[in-house]
Structure prediction request, 291 residues.
Amino acid sequence: MTVPCITFIGGGNMCEAILSGLLKTGHPTSHVRVSEPFDQRQAFLREKYGIDVFGDNNEAVTGATGTVSTAPVDVVVLAVKPQVVGEVVRGIAKSLQSTQPLVISIVAGVAIKDFARWIHHDSSATARVPLVRLMPNTPALVGEGAAGMYADADVSDEQKKQTEYVVCNIAKEYFWVDSESGVDAVCAVSGSGPAYFFLVIEAMEKAGVELGLSADVAKRLAAQTALGAARMVLTSEDDVATLRRKVTSPNGTTHAAIEKMIEEKVPEGVQSGMLACRARCTTLSEEFGNL
Prediction:
């Protein structure tokens, strides 16, 4: 795979996480551009990373007036808020039609059919722009992300490699799903998943304080325990249920805690929450598709 020229539309935290990962692994500054509406953020990205940062989305796609990057665009990453994505995509539709890059959306809750409709709203457009939906999560900001991806029928094998080239810089675990509904399932598991663990760690910290520990000690013990447990899941040959049983001695301290959590329906609560997350993804897709 040749090194792709990548344009980011939106210069926020997730853009910066991907951008910094790319540059750290040797991606040339001549093959990356960012469009960002706020002057202060533009200056920050330009100074920190030595890349072209534009205030105009179309110039970022085409590379017009660029002082560093003159390569034709291969990949456009949409990293804007869902509330404005329809307006943004319609605004760059002609540039996308003329350059025909792979478009990767990290915008939650917006379906590929709506991106296609916004890009191809001009009936004279014949060639289809290939589209990928990418669902990363916030641990990407510290290099510990997880992600799921779905490609439409116009995405080539080479463009799938380009997607993985982008994703591997922010996610330790990433997978292609077979249907777009699978992106909503990814959202329920890993996209929104960090908040579930924050809730658990928050509860463990509070309980630790009630048991006599300082807030800082309780937080750090809970967080490291979560990290260690996750590492065991990813490296052990045992499944999760077996790992749990191995640390739950009959009538022991862990057994008492687990039995109480089951009595309080903690597992059912987690599962119900994930189903609610997926349902909300569907609702948001309908709402944002009407923008």
In short: The longest helix spans residues 266-289. Residues 6-177 form a domain with the Rossmann fold fold (CATH 3.40.50.720). The mean pLDDT is 93. The radius of gyration is 22 Å.
